[in-house]
Fold this protein.
Amino acid sequence: MNHLKIIVVASFLILISCRDKKAESATLDLKKGSIIKRENFDMFNSRFHSDSVFQISRVDFPIDGISVSGFDRHNWRKENWKFITVPVSEKNEIENYEHSLVKTDTLVIERFWIPKSGFEVERQFKLLKNKWFLIYYNDINL
């Protein structure tokens, strides 16, 4: 039995060293002895913010968060969704905005705001069944 585990782990290491690391990452399920492929966030991020059909398919409706623009306030639904074109970024590239980013293997939280202005955007992406989804989007512009 121990030899089987060693063979599985060795096979896994050889496999991950040969694959395209940009497309997906893999984890080994030791209980089942199989490899689980996990979507790469950077590849997802690029496609999510450039392909509107893909974006809608990866928003986990009903989504938490709200849209506030002046006196107009609504919860996000598929029917009132606005295509998001600005990708998640490691650093702040927009002048006058504050920016924070928290990234783990299964969650990405990005927030940007202008202090004391009434403008704030927060979005959260979560890995669900090895695919990334937007699960929270607050877009506040008072």
The chain has two domains: 1-38, 40-141. The first strand starts at residue 24 and ends at 29.
